[in-house]
Design a protein that fits this description.
5 helices, four-stranded parallel sheet, globular, 153 residues
Length: 153
């Protein structure tokens, strides 16, 4: 059962460096520009992860220009959290932060438990496999929720 796409969606994870930027980029690639898509982290203390860039590049999803940001920075920069139709938390910490925000805003929050691939794997290839697993979990959840990628996107 696939739902209609929301008008706006916010993906969040711990650092906005791995899972949420992948989800943002893949969502845009799969479903086009009809939905406003952003991503954010509980903290912004890391740049976009090189392995995330690499495994998304395999799908023609460009992440190298992504700039990490936190919930607090997002509010400081004038992005109104209350304007998002859906917040998808990809980590327990980001789910807690998103649920805190629902005390102030009426937000629909979903939790998708996505593997954190950082620190997994000894070799470059093993690390890439971990990141591909996280990427593929995100894709599976997107397709389950909103159906296959749209033609021409």
């Amino acid at each position: 059962m696939t739902d209609r796409l929301p008008q706006s969606i916010l993906f969040c994870c711990d650092h906005n460096a791995v899972r949420s930027p992948m989800a943002e980029g893949i969502m845009k690639k799969f479903y086009g520009t009809g939905t406003y898509v952003q991503s954010v982290g509980v903290k912004n203390d890391m740049e976009i992860d090189g392995f995330s860039i690499a495994v998304c590049q395999e799908l023609d999803v460009e992440l190298s220009r992504h700039r990490s940001r936190s919930f607090d920075e997002m509010e400081e920069w004038g992005d109104d959290l209350s304007s998002f139709d859906l917040v998808v938390a990809l980590s327990p910490a980001s789910q807690r932060r998103a649920l805190e925000l629902t005390r102030y805003y009426h937000l629909e929050v979903e939790y998708w438990p996505i593997l954190d691939p950082t620190g997994l794997g000894e070799t470059r290839e093993a690390k890439l496999e971990s990141y591909r697993a996280a990427r593929d979990q995100i894709i599976a959840r997107l397709v389950e929720r909103w159906g296959p990628a749209r033609e021409g996107t």
